[in-house]
């Protein structure tokens, strides 16, 4: 059974569409379980019916025609209970309904299992036999396992199935919506441009052939180049290979002949597909066929076909024009966005960014927030290769992307864009005004930065300091550790540009989802592994060089603050303090007049929450990293689309922890700041102010909104709101109260937009 399951998984992953998957599943299960019938019923949410979508054993003409409501038949009962039903004689069960024309009257025993994806029942998988018997536990377990595999495929197909191409005219028919992780707020409406890595067949986007003959010529030139390469390699190895091994090169060449792979590609080009897309489709079809073969030697030929396809594709991409025409309002789409990709698009044309993979903490996401470009990541179900030239709406507030949006959705989002522009124009007037409540309470607003380009944008928006400078970013854009002198120059630029305002530099925070290509950290669970202060204390040579560079950069400016990330024990604080003291002493001995700057710690893990007073006795300030703290308190990876909906910054436990931290720090007369995303939300900023936080730090894009919210409320009203929220026990209700409060105060334009139901 295990070997059969392995083959099913392999074949399903290579299948081109849902119909092929379902047909393959019913055939393989029928053969593996030696049953007379296997069928799949899928639930149509719009029609509220289970429809027969594939069968091996029932009348094939019933497929797509026969259906049951959720309250009908044993199939409906399996779906309603969301658990397997195993019957010796299905016809004697009270829920049994005979489906006329299917031929099921021949069968008695019945085993049905639900197909469930993220708590939703997507369908029912059924096997039946003529003789009366109960299926055994192993058979039931096998069917449940297959249904779990099938669930992901069906969910992906439901998400992507409405986007399809009519090959002749490249038109799309239906609107689709995809859920991801918001990485940079804002809304963008524009045209998709797909960026793909070189020589990756799976990443080749769909595109019609502009000039069919030109596409064929380009393909033939690439083909000739690959044939030439294979002959050269074959000749160069001829003396070292046996005759039968040399014959493999002849096999390669035969695969490229006109009556084999090459002929099929040309035929697809003539039908209207561009050369790279035609090659992709032909190679994938051949790979699928070879993978399905029983003979292990023939199965390995799939690797040969894939290799040939990549070689031909590489030559075609090399010959293709390197200059892409970026339309106005380009929405850049990629499997995984990189900073280099952003740099290739003219900034005046770039409206938004979409990435299938990646997280809100990736370098590209940080850069996008810094530039104020709406961004969504983690769209695992997005068929990104099909989005070239499509109309897209990107909602960086909710993490949604709409493809081929309806007129209603477009109108709703165009109104949001207009309102955002009006709000931005109005907020510009607040630049030189303080973030002061209507009853005179002053709230300092700082910014989070990582690039020198952030500084100008931050100052334009009236930032009073830097609450978090991510020092790992200059490390991430290099191929090796920067020297002390190089680091000093980078840090000096930040400190000088913001002088005399304070600049809080976090020591190197790598690990987790922030990796350096030249310092790989491979772990089973990186978020609970070797990261932050744990890495730098284990590598004092890295820590000391960085601290020395910071101290040298601050010479004569005296606006440096050093912050230690991911601290969990006083031992780490004591050891880091000793090393900072050592760096100060060394530089003084070298003739530099160096003052010891204020040193603080980040409270990011639950263990740190209950040691705040102990930390406060050893440091000059406390800063809360609310993003990681929320993640660890709730055991939710906010960058994982499957559970991102459980990431709740306004969860009562999170709010209690945040208030406790502020109270504990103040008991030691130590200032406390916060530099997570909650501080960048106008409602969250009001709550944090009422909790007693001394500084709020956020991305520069959101600073004017937060300032407007604080100026639009009294400190007394904010305290009343906090009292009200302390008594609440539901995160969503708390969030709704914050939004309604802002609306009552005439600040509704600062909250996240909402889209009409049904869109």
Using the alpha-carbon principal axes, give the shape: globular
What's the arrangement of strands in the largest beta sheet? 7-14-13-9-10-11-12-8
Distance between the termini: 44 Å
Supply the helix-strand structural class.
alpha/beta
Q: What is the number of helices?
A: 26
**Poorly predicted parts:** 162-173
User: Helicity, in percent?
Assistant: 40-55%
- Strand share of the residues? 15-25%
How does the major sheet shape up? Answer: 8 strands, mixed
Can you give the mean pLDDT?
Answer: 83
- Report the C-alpha radius of gyration, rounded: 30 Å
Number of beta strands: 22
List its salient traits.
single chain, 759 residues, alpha/beta, eight-stranded mixed β-sheet, eight-stranded parallel beta barrel, 26 helices, 15% strand, globular, magnesium, metal-binding, kinase
Structure characterization notes:
The chain is α/β, with parallel strands linked by helices and 759 residues long. Helix content is 44%, strand content 15%. The protein contains 26 helices and 22 strands. An 8-stranded mixed beta sheet has the order 7-14-13-9-10-11-12-8. Strand 21 (672-674), helix 23 (682-691) and strand 22 form a beta-alpha-beta unit. Helix 5 (212-236) packs antiparallel against helix 6 (243-255), helix 13 (452-460) packs parallel to helix 15 (484-498) and helix 15 packs across helix 17 (540-553). The longest helix is centred in the N-terminal third of the chain and has 25 residues, at 212-236. The chain is globular. The model is unreliable at 162-173 (pLDDT under 50).
């Amino acid at each position: 059974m295990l070997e059969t399951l392995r083959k099913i998984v392999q074949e399903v992953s290579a299948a081109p569409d849902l119909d092929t998957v379902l047909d393959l599943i019913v055939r393989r299960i029928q053969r593996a379980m030696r049953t007379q019938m296997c069928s799949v019923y899928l639930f149509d949410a719009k029609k509220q019916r289970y429809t027969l979508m594939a069968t091996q054993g029932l009348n094939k003409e019933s497929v797509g025609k026969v259906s049951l409501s959720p309250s009908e038949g044993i199939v409906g009962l399996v779906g309603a209970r969301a658990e397997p039903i195993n019957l010796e004689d299905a016809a004697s069960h009270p829920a049994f309904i005979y489906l006329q024309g299917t031929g099921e009257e021949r069968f008695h025993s019945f085993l049905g299992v639900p197909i469930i994806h993220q708590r939703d029942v997507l369908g029912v998988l059924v096997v039946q036999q003529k003789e009366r018997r109960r299926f055994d536990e192993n058979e039931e377990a096998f069917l449940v396992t297959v249904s779990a595999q099938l669930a992901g495929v069906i969910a992906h197909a439901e998400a992507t199935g409405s986007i399809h191409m009519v090959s002749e005219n490249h038109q799309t028919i239906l609107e689709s919506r995809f859920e991801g992780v918001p990485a940079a707020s804002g809304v963008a409406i524009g045209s998709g441009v797909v960026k793909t890595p070189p020589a990756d067949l799976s990443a080749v986007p769909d595109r019609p052939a502009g000039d069919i003959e030109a596409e064929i010529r380009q393909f033939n030139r690439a083909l000739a180049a690959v044939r030439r390469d294979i002959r050269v390699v074959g000749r160069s190895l001829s003396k070292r290979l046996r005759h039968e091994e040399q014959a493999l090169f002849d096999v390669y060449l035969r695969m490229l002949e006109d009556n084999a792979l090459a002929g099929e590609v040309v035929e697809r080009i003539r039908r209207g597909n561009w050369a790279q897309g035609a090659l992709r489709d032909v190679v994938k079809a051949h790979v699928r066929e070879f993978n399905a073969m029983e003979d292990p030697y023939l199965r390995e030929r799939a690797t040969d076909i894939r290799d040939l396809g990549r070689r031909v594709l590489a030559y075609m991409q090399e010959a293709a024009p390197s200059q892409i025409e970026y339309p106005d309002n380009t929405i850049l789409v990629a499997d995984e966005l990189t900073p280099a990709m952003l740099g290739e698009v003219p900034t005046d044309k770039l409206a938004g960014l979409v990435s299938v993979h990646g997280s809100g903490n990736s370098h590209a996401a940080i850069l996008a927030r810094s530039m104020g470009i709406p961004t969504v990541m983690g769209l695992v179900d997005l068929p990104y290769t099909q989005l070239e030239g499509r109309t897209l709406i990107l909602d960086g507030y909710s993490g949604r992307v709409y493809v081929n949006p309806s007129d209603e959705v477009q109108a709703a989002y165009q109104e949001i864009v207009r309102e955002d522009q009006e709000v931005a124009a109005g907020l510009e007037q607040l630049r030189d005004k303080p973030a002061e409540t209507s009853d005179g309470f002053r709230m300092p607003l700082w910014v989070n930065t990582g690039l020198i380009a952030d500084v100008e944008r931050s100052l334009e928006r009236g930032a009073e300091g830097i609450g978090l400078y991510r020092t790992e970013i200059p490390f991430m854009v290099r191929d090796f550790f920067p020297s002390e002198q190089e680091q000093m120059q980078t840090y000096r630029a930040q400190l000088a540009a913001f002088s005399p305002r304070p600049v809080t530099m976090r020591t190197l925070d790598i690990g987790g989802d922030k990796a350096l290509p030249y310092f790989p950290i491979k772990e089973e669970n990186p978020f609970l592994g070797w990261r932050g202060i744990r890495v730098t204390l284990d590598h004092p040579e890295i820590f000391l060089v960085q601290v020395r560079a910071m101290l040298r950069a601050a010479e004569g400016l005296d606006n440096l603050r050093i912050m230690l990330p991911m601290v969990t024990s006083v031992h780490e604080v004591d050891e880091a303090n000793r090393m900072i003291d050592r760096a100060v002493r060394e530089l003084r001995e070298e003739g530099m007049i160096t003052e010891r700057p204020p040193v603080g710690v980040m409270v990011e893990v639950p263990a740190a929450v209950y040691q705040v007073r102990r930390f406060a006795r050893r440091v000059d300030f406390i800063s809360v990293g609310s993003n990681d703290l929320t993640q660890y308190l709730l055991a939710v990876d906010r960058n994982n689309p499957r559970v991102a909906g459980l990431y709740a910054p306004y969860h009562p436990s999170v709010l209690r922890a945040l208030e406790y931290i502020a109270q504990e720090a103040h008991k030691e007369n130590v200032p406390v700041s916060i530099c997570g995303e909650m501080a960048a939300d106008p409602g969250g900023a009001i709550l944090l102010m009422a909790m007693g936080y001394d500084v709020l730090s956020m991305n520069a894009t959101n600073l004017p909104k937060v300032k407007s919210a604080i100026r639009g409320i009294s400190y007394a009203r904010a305290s009343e709101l906090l009292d009200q929220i302390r008594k609440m026990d539901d995160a969503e209700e708390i969030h709704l109260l914050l939004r309604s409060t802002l609306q009552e105060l005439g600040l509704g334009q600062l909250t996240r937009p909402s889209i009409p139901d049904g869109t």
